[in-house]
Amino acid sequence: MVSNANIGDGLEPLCRIITPIGMLGYGFDEFEIKDALESSIRSGIPAAIILDSGSTDSGPAKLALGTMTCPRASYERDLRKLVATIIKYRFPVLIGSAGGDGSNAHVKELVDIVNEILASSEYK
Fold first, then answer.
1. Whether the Cβ atoms of residue 66 and residue 105 lie closer than 8 Å to each other
2. pLDDT digits (tens, 9 = 90+) for 58-94
3. What whole-number distance in Å separates Cα of residue 122 and Cα of residue 82?
4. Domain of life, per the record (predicted)?
5. Among 21, 69, 70, 123, which is 20 to 30 Å from 100 by CA?
6. What is the pTM of this model?
């Protein structure tokens, strides 16, 4: 989401951070992100899409069991929306952690999902 906070004393923002949702895999409205990106383009302020995809809040169970926070289909849905948005608007995306615990296996899983999306006929 984009905050329209007033900046006083003549200060200008250096960049905009656009966060579609706090946790990848929980779903988000891509139209809100597109509105925020278009607003950033009009303003000339650099922007990036930044969101999280993990947490240590659940303790060591995910790491020990190798489970992800959300089903793979949930990550596929959200990443498909992000990839389409990135290709259209050419903004960088930063995703913190991956799949819950941020293990190498879960980072690889999210990279695999992105590669599968890019290899689909939709992007050829």
1. yes
2. 667 777 777 888 999 999 999 999 999 999 999 999 9
3. 14
4. Eukaryota
5. 123
6. 0.84
Cα atoms in the 13 Å half-sphere on the side-chain side of 24: 32
- Whether the CB-CB separation of 50 and 2 falls below 8 Å is answered with no
* Cβ contact 47:34 at 8 Å: no
Q: Please, which residues have CB within 8 angstroms of residue 45's CB and are 6 or more apart in sequence?
A: 13, 14, 15, 16
CA gap 106, 54 in Å, rounded: 10
What order do you get walking across the sheet with 93-100 strand by strand? 16-18, 47-54, 93-100
Buried b (16+ CB within 10 A) or exposed e, 10-37: eeeeeebebbbbebbbeebeeeebbebb
CA 98 from chain center: how many Å? 11
